[in-house]
Structures are given as structure tokens and as C-alpha cells.
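ok so I'm stuck.
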Amino acid sequence: MNAIDKIYSNQMGISFFWKRETQTDMPKVQLVFRDIGFLLSLNELKDFSDSCMTTMQSQCCAECQDIGNCRSLLLRTPSEKIDLAVSKDEVQQIHELINGTIFRIELKHWIKNCSQN
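replied:
not stuck anymore, here's the structure
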């Protein structure tokens, strides 16, 4: 764990900076949930959050008996070629993970900018 700076975590996953990446002005964020890791910029995280919102507004199939856990929803990822099959509960947790990460990053930048002025 010495190679990372944790940003945020929840039951679904974790987000962090690789310490070697923090030398740049806008380091990419490693977002890990399930068995998947994405290395994303802040703008890509925001786009991913928007995709979560779109997915949460969609409906499960009408015949679904397992509404909370059925993985019948497709979540678009920042990678054009990858969509994820998720349940309503999973997309909500992924969305919370992404938004918590965005909040902490923007707060850190805001505090840094305030201290420099």
C-alpha cells in the first residue's frame, strides 16, 4: 500500500493515485471495483459518472424477479469498447464511488489553490 495514495473507497471498490503519478499536475486516478481497474483523468471520471446516471434511469426487463441483483443493465465505461453488465445496486455503488472520488479530488485542488493565494 506504500505505492498508492488512497482517495476514496466504499463497499464496491477503491480509488487512488499511484505515487509515481502524483508528480504531474493532473495525475490519473486508478479506480478499482469488482475485478476491473480503470486509469482515468478527472474528466473521464465525470463522464463515467454521467454514464452511471443514464444507466440508473433505465429499467430492468419487465419479467425480472430479482430487480435489485439482476445484472441486466449495461453501463458504458470511458473505454469505447467496454460496457459492463451491472445490477441497479452495483451501478448505484459505482456511482457513489466515482462521485466520492471526484469530490475529494476537487476539494484537494480547491484547498491547494486557496493556500497558494
